[in-house]
Every structure is written in C-alpha cells, then in structure tokens.
Amino acid sequence: MFSGEGECVPLCEQLYPIGNVEDWLLEIERVMRGTIRSQLEMALEDYKESKRTDFVLKWPGQIVIAVCQTYWSSEVTNALEEKSVAEYLLKMLEKLDGLRELVRQELPVIGRLTLSALIVIEVHSRDVIEDMVREWVSDPNAFEWISQLRYYWLEDKNLYQRAVNAQFPYGYEYLGNTSRLVITPLTDRSGAWACFDEFNRIDIEVLSVVAQQIATIQNAQKMQAATFIFEGVEIVLKMSCAVFITMNPGYAGRTELPDNLKVISSLAVVTESCRLNDYDPRMLAIP
Q: Which residues form the Dynein heavy chain hydrolytic ATP-binding dynein motor region domain (predicted)?
C-alpha cells in the first residue's frame, strides 16, 4: 500500500486483480485490514524491546501513533492506580524531550511526518496528565480520565478505543502518514472526529428524515446488531460509525433543528476562547 505522502506498507498477502472488480476490491480491503492488524500486533511487541526513538522511525506512522497511545493509556491507568500520576508526568516530559531531540536531526520525509504527528498527539497527552495532576485526580474511574480517548489491546487480540462508557473497535483501515490537527479544549469537549458542517442549511423536511435515519443507526448500535434494516434494505452495521454536526444558530435563512434531531444529539458550544489564531503545530517541536 502506498499513501499520498509516499509511505509504503507491504501487504501481508499477495493479491491478483482478476475477475469481478467488486470481488477483488473486497479482497484488497480484507488484506488491507489484515495487514494493519498484523503490523499493529508486531509493533506492540517491538515497542517493549526497542529504544523509543528507534521505534517511531521503524514502523508506519499510523501504527506508531496507535501503539504509543495504547501504551500511554495503560501507563496512565497504572499511574492512577498507584497514585503516582505526578511521577508519570516527569516520564512523559522525558519522552517528549527525546522526540524533540530526534526531530532536530536529519530525517527522511516520512520519518519527519511521523514525528510531527506523534508530537501533536503526545503534547495533548502531556496536557491531559498535567490537568489531572492539577486537579489531584487519583482514581482510574475519574471522569477526567475516562472522558479521554483511550486505546486498549484486549484479550481477543484486537485494538479498541474507549471514551467514557463507549467502546469502538479499531477499524484497521490504512490512513497513510497524515498530519494531525492540534487538539484544543474544544476538541476534547465535543469529541468530534468528523462533522457535517453547516447542518442547519438543510431544509426542515430533509432534516427530519435525516434525524430518523440517524436514530435508526444509533438504535442498532445500542442493540449491538450485526445487521439492521435501513430504508427497507438489510445492511451490515459498522459499530465504529458516529455522527457529528456543526451549525451557526441565529443566521437568516438557517433552519432550526427539529426536536427529533435534538434529542439524539449532545451539545458543544464553540466560543472565541476555543480558537487558536496563527498557530503552527510544527512549533511544538521547538523548545
């Protein structure tokens, strides 16, 4: 697999694109997911044996971030159980110092992309720990901790993401070595991964239909159904799916959200203090 950034990840099986397009594209998807899962499992073991600065340049960027976040989730949980979050914060600062020293060196383009993305993620991880130290958090079930996006490699040999009481299976879809958005307090508050922007520009009649469709998907998720009926058709349910919307209330020509859409949504308000002006995430690598 080749990403738009030039990263190459060898597939775990050989594939031959013959026969129906629909069939071999499904095979490509299957092998892609198998490849990412296999790489992730191997990298989780390698992390324990390798020097961290070597590890981040050895594996694909997506794998590096998933593995580092998995170990971070486990280490913070252990620190909370042992009442040693302040001590773990010092270790986290040492890890960031190591990445900062590494990013100053001559690196291949792909390695630098991996480091830039990892630094953005781990600066946010540091901020989370600093907040917990400041708030004297010492319980692994405290909201300040369980509200964070956490990664866990469970006994069934699969990766899961958790936030509060929700758990999503990791999709193992190859994302490439993409840059990361800087995580602000608003990101934490909304929990958004992807958004339907300017949602209230849609006509009220269409909004009501969309709300019913979203409710159908959410009900199937609550039931943990393998398949469900959507618009009269039985389809496979992806438990990792989620819906987020944005809107500017009070503008002329905008539609008020119908009640059946409001009741299945939670609210996060963007204020002026949530914005980051003239901010470059690459500056995070500069002391």
A: 190-264
Residue with tokens 């040492």: 94
Report all structural domains of the chain as residue ranges with CATH numbers, in order of start: 21-182 (1.20.58.1120), 199-267 (3.40.50.300)
CA pair distance 98, 92, nearest whole angstrom = 10
Tokens 């901020």 found at: 127
Does residue 37 register a pLDDT over 90? yes
What are the φ and ψ backbone dihedral angles of 60, each rounded to 5 degrees? Answer: -55, 150
**Amino acid at position 32, single letter:** M
Is residue 174 within 8 A of residue 253, CB to CB? The reply is no
Cβ atoms of residues 92 and 85 within 8 Å: no
pLDDT at 280 over 50: no
Instruction: Sheet with 159-163: list strands edge to edge.
Output: 150-153, 159-163, 166-169
What is this structure's pTM? 0.71
Alpha helices in the chain (DSSP H): 21-49, 52-58, 61-81, 85-103, 109-134, 143-146, 185-190, 204-222, 259-262
Six-digit token string for 48: 């324990």
Cα gap 45→47, rounded to integer Å? 5
Count CA within 13 A, CB hemisphere, residue 26.
5
Calpha distance 170→175 (Å, rounded): 12
Supply the pLDDT for residue 166: 82
- 127 contact partners, CB below 8 Å, separation of at least 6: none
